[in-house]
Amino acid sequence: MTMSDTTAPAAPVVPTRGRLRPLGLDEVRITGGFWGDRQAINGEATLAHIESRLESEGWLPNYDLAVAGTLPEGRRGREFADSEVYKYLEALAWEISRTDAAADAPLEQRFRRVVTRVAAAQEPDGYLNTMFGRPGQAPRWSDLEWGHELYCLGHLFQAAVARHRTRPDADDGLVEVARRAAELVCREFGPAGRDAICGHAEVEVGLAELGRALDEPRFIAQAALFVERHGHGSLREIEWGQEYFQDDVPVRDAEALRGHAVRANYLASGATDVAVEGGDTALLDALRAQWDRTVERRTYVTGGQGSHHQDEAFGDDWELPPDRAYSETCAGIGSIMFSWRLLLATGEARHADLIERTLFNVVATSPASDGRGFYYANTLHQRVPGVPADPDGTSKRASSSLRAPWFEVSCCPPNVARTFASLAAYLATADDDGVQLHQYAPASVRTTLPDGRVVALDIETGYPVDGSIRVTIVDDAAFTLSLRVPAWATDAVLRVHSGDGLAEHPAAPGTVEVARAFRAGDIVELVLPLTVRATAPHPMVDAVRGSVAIERGPEVLALESVDFGSDIGDAVVAGDPVESDGRVVLPVLHRSTGDVVETPLVAYHDWARRGPSTMRVWVPTI
Amino acid sequence: MTMSDTTAPAAPVVPTRGRLRPLGLDEVRITGGFWGDRQAINGEATLAHIESRLESEGWLPNYDLAVAGTLPEGRRGREFADSEVYKYLEALAWEISRTDAAADAPLEQRFRRVVTRVAAAQEPDGYLNTMFGRPGQAPRWSDLEWGHELYCLGHLFQAAVARHRTRPDADDGLVEVARRAAELVCREFGPAGRDAICGHAEVEVGLAELGRALDEPRFIAQAALFVERHGHGSLREIEWGQEYFQDDVPVRDAEALRGHAVRANYLASGATDVAVEGGDTALLDALRAQWDRTVERRTYVTGGQGSHHQDEAFGDDWELPPDRAYSETCAGIGSIMFSWRLLLATGEARHADLIERTLFNVVATSPASDGRGFYYANTLHQRVPGVPADPDGTSKRASSSLRAPWFEVSCCPPNVARTFASLAAYLATADDDGVQLHQYAPASVRTTLPDGRVVALDIETGYPVDGSIRVTIVDDAAFTLSLRVPAWATDAVLRVHSGDGLAEHPAAPGTVEVARAFRAGDIVELVLPLTVRATAPHPMVDAVRGSVAIERGPEVLALESVDFGSDIGDAVVAGDPVESDGRVVLPVLHRSTGDVVETPLVAYHDWARRGPSTMRVWVPTI
Fold first, then answer.
1. At a CB cut-off of 8 Å and minimum separation 6, what does B314 contact?
2. Is the Cβ–Cβ distance between A95 and A43 less than 8 Å?
3. Nearest to B547 among A317, A545, A591 (CB)
4. Closest to A539 (Cβ–Cβ): which among B309, B543, B591?
5. How confident is the model at residue A400 (pLDDT cuts 50, 70, 90)?
6. Mutate which of A238, A316, A317, A323 to test chain B, going by most B C-beta atoms within 10 A?
7. CA-to-CA distance for A415 and B275, rounded, in angstroms?
8. Which residues contact A350 (CB under 8 A, 6 or more apart)?
């Protein structure tokens, strides 16, 4: 593990204040298990798959055409195609750090080749976009509703942050490209510039983090300006209303996330960043209240968000149809971004609870087992078996119910890739007293507290198959070890194995702490009860009345036709789910025949991995 | 009542064969009651409102600009704006007949003024469209997916049919305009022409009826050609798939209506016409099977169709979310068009049952009480009170939950207007033996059977408030009087009051017949039990599990917050609905307080007439 020589952690979000301090990829490493496997596939297959598609779809060659002066004729892809290149660069930057790739390693070479092509297309004044501003193209900033220019730059900034924090001494130039673009944004859209926002939030979170990374307060101030400008109707009315862009109500006055679910979460993330940086408690409180209401009333049991296909948007409170769940993969990632920022700011375990729910049931659902296919939308109820996507084709966003290799709007694949590559950064944090574990995976943690105490932990677990999380203390140190106890874990137990023998305590949902002078070899074990449970819906959620969802630990389970033997529309719960031979089995009545059959359930994230099927998360009880 | 001197009935659909013969507006007149009131408001307010908006929105002036040669610059409205002018002309034509307007009456003058402006814009070769074909406009037929040129002409043809059948000797020229346009369509798209279809079905039904009206078999053959060309993927792929256009599967191979619900119903209507004209039993059987499956699995309890906002489309079988019901008013009208053609072809009462359900619960729901506002979409569950529409503005299609005066896509207002103006044509039919009554309203029927027997009936009823339908025989005649007994009327009674005294028989759902030598003054009375009933959903409809809908006669009822006193999300059925003082009252538990309150229900078609409210048709029982 290479310690970066930058002072900030090698992490995507590093606030200058807040309850918890993030740990970087140089401090936390996932060493195997559920997430380790996914990180491996991401690194071995997904990244190359993405670069191959960016090349063949023309989204990377767009930069070459820009340099050759042959735009706009040859340009391919939608307005936001540039952003996928930047998300790919961000994923590569994290992956280089995660795998400790050398300067002459293939990953590093790929990264540099892409950066060179991107950098060559930047205009002398810092402007960078392949869709606007050249002869024959629409003028710069002429379509703020749909042009996505600032959105694309936001992703450029996040990629530059990843690079800066993981390879601060690299000479590839990406950080300078981002800095020049950010300076242009500040000139164009600053207090004396255009009083405008982008139709897709993202530049806020990108600018705020770039400002943090480069110690440029004016970038953070510009992010704050964009946040405050939302909600004043500066974007044109569209069929779905200005709430689509979150331009209907100012951020600090809103009661819940609304409109386009990715936009809403990205904006809330950027707003959290500027609230934290500015010490703006009122704004932070407003965001916390929005998070509460959104999680209570506008979030699926999977953690998925967005119940409208039409505008990829949140519905009204309690409007959560499982069969029309849009639950875009990127909205899940956006929700994790927002929750993570609130967790750092407040330390409250419920934010980590939602991150876990969303990671296991939205983000893990998206990629195919081989890392070369993805769900864009994540329905909770499939009535008609899907049609396999053309392996060489480009799919509609939500048209199939099977994972597809690429989409006309292909935001999700690189978003999953950057999330997996940086996932270790979401496992643990530190404060002045010690280390907090929020997500459970086999991992190593090595960090130094502000007063110089070194904390070194090795975590072993078979989670989420097994509920035991064993944290071995590697070096003697006195500190507080905090562990999250998920809200569903009502009978968790904490065991401390030390020279003093074994001490065992019940651990209530929330956070459990062990503060002591640890000795090398001490083991703190959290045992989470992974009892299978049937969850009744909130009575206000009309669409799943008279049904239950079966859950086990952090995983939502699903009834799939492959196991049920016929159309899952025929199924009625006929008893309690039980575990048998490592599988969860549910007694299910076939309504049409009267037969009750013990039917295995699958983890929702594994549905449709055995081929086209019908599937439901909520199973009728009447 | 003026008898037209054309031999065909003054009706919108006059097949050359089939089980039943339609009666025209010259043979059936609605004389009051529920539908008579709506016809009056339609004539007194809605028609003028529509013309005023067609003028102020620029959709009528587009024709003047075409003549002046100042298109495309000044053109306003969407691709299909012309079609609203034609639907308005069709409504006017029926209204002129319905009210027996003289040649110098204001209605007739309005009609002629509009026809003159439209006719002046027709090109020498018969082409007529304000959006395409002029210098600076896209070429004719260059955007078959979205251009709506043939769709607009289909509505022109229907308007011309209405005029031809009601004022066959009029010299306004509309019929010749339509004939020239139809001839152009046959030249351009005939067997030797472009092998193509329009992205929005309508030209099929228009051409078929114009062919019937003008005795031009080649127009019907052209309609048949368009029907057969559907389903071969000639239209470009779009995000929602080719099923949006019904270009995914040939009409005769499809299993259910699918895709855009208005397109699907219009195509099925035109396909029924060509099946009937061609004696194509296989095609007719396919359409009947599609109707069966669509009604069983893809139709709301209101008769509404279309459960997707995104593409205004049918969902999968059983996908019927009440809160996301799109249930477009025009899809309801399209469903009535399709059902009416099948009723004429087969005589089966279930088609009239669906027409009744859809008329009372979709079409009657749309217009505001003053006839100057409309629902475009008809949700079955409203969680947030709507925002009143700007009375001078133009609304998004489905954005508000309150009736709006006009829409950017304003197909529904003139569609409602033409349906109301021609409604008498859907009440009764004839065959060689007598007359059949399908819908119940105060009305007079005067017709002559093929063998010269004159049937004259006066119908009195307070339906749907009251269940007694009294049919008085006006002149002596021997014939068979058939009356539809709705499927929900399980204890209906038929009484025949004649010189022989009173005879009373039970009348089972379906059709009840009285065949006798009637004497003037005989009365046939059908008494339909309007007992309020709680309807459980089909168990396959997941979205309303554990809920019931309350119905009374043909009317679906709704629970509205105005009566409930708080958010209808808090409501649970606590007993059986009862009638009390002419109102239906339901005992409802307030979940949050535990109180049970006897709560009046309103007819669904009357919801939100007392101001913004929350509302639900399906009320939870658990």
1. B256, B257, B258, B259, B261, B264, B294, B298, B305, B306, B307, B308
2. yes
3. A545
4. B591
5. low
6. A323
7. 52
8. A295, A487
CB A175 within 8 A of CB A164: yes
B444-495, pLDDT tens digit by residue?
999 999 999 999 999 999 999 999 999 999 999 999 999 999 999 999 999 9
Token look-up 């999977």 returns A302
Q: Which of A145-149, A194-198, B233-237, B418-422 has the lowest mean pLDDT?
A: B233-237
Q: Which of A316, A545, A618 sits opposite B622 (nearest CB)?
A: A545
For residue B308, the chain A residues in CB contact (below 8 A) are 309-310, 324
Calculate ∠ Cα A262-A263-A269, nearest 5°.
Answer: 90
Residue with tokens 């459960």: B307
Of A162, A175, A153, which Cα lies nearest the Cα of A8?
A162
* A411-435 residue pLDDT tens: 999 999 999 999 999 999 999 999 9
Q: How many pairs of residues across A and B have Cβ atoms under 8 Å apart?
A: 97
Please report, as a single letter, which amino acid is at residue B102. Answer: A
Question: How far is A240 from chain B, CA to nearest CA, in Å?
Answer: 7
Angstrom distance (rounded) from CA B459 to CA B456? 10
Mean pLDDT along residues A74-94: 97
Nearest Cβ partner of A383 from B319, B408, B539? Answer: B319
pLDDT at A584 over 90: yes
Q: Could you say which residues from 371 to 400 on chain A have a Cβ atom under 8 Å away from some Cβ of chain B?
A: 381, 383-384, 396-397, 399
Q: Which residue of A has its CA nearest to B242?
A: A399
CB-hemisphere CA count at 13 Å for A301?
32
Contact B202, B154 (CB under 8 A): yes
Q: What is the pLDDT of residue A437?
A: 98
Q: How confident is the model at residue A6 (pLDDT cuts 50, 70, 90)?
A: very low
Contact A403, A608 (CB under 8 A): yes
CA angle B547, B551, B555 (to 5 degrees): 135
B377: chain A residues, CB-CB within 8 Å: none
Q: What distance in Å separates residue B554's CA from the closest CA in chain A?
A: 25
Rounded to whole angstroms, how far apart are CA atoms B140 and A591?
A: 55
Q: How far apart are CA B454 and CA B446, in angstroms?
A: 7
Interchain pair A543, B321: CB under 8 A? yes
CA distance B381 to A317: 13
d(CA A198, CA A65): 25
Q: Does position B194 have pLDDT exceeding 90, yes or no? A: yes
B313 to chain A: nearest residue by CA? Answer: A310
Percent of chain B predicted with pLDDT > 90: 94
CB contact under 8 A, B323 and A319: yes
pLDDT tens per residue across span B270-329? 999 999 999 999 999 999 999 999 999 999 999 999 999 999 999 999 999 999 999 999
Interatomic CA distance for residues A454 and A145, integer angstroms: 49
* Residue found under tokens 């009723």: B343
A612 preceded by cis ω (within 30°)? no
Chain A touched by B142 (CB under 8 Å): no
How many angstroms separate the CA atoms of B419 and A127, rounded? Answer: 57
Contact A321 B324 (CB under 8 A): yes
Q: Mean pLDDT, to the nearest integer, of B549-563? A: 98
| Alpha-helical regions (H) of B99-127 | 106-120
A541: left (phi over 0), alpha (psi -120 to 50) or beta: beta
Q: Indicate if the pLDDT at residue B515 is higher than 80.
A: yes
Predicted confidence (pLDDT) at residue B211 exceeds the cutoff of 70:
yes
Q: Tell me the ipTM for this assembly.
A: 0.91
B192 to chain A, any CB pair closer than 8 A? The answer is no
- Whether the per-residue pLDDT at A399 is higher than 70: the answer is no
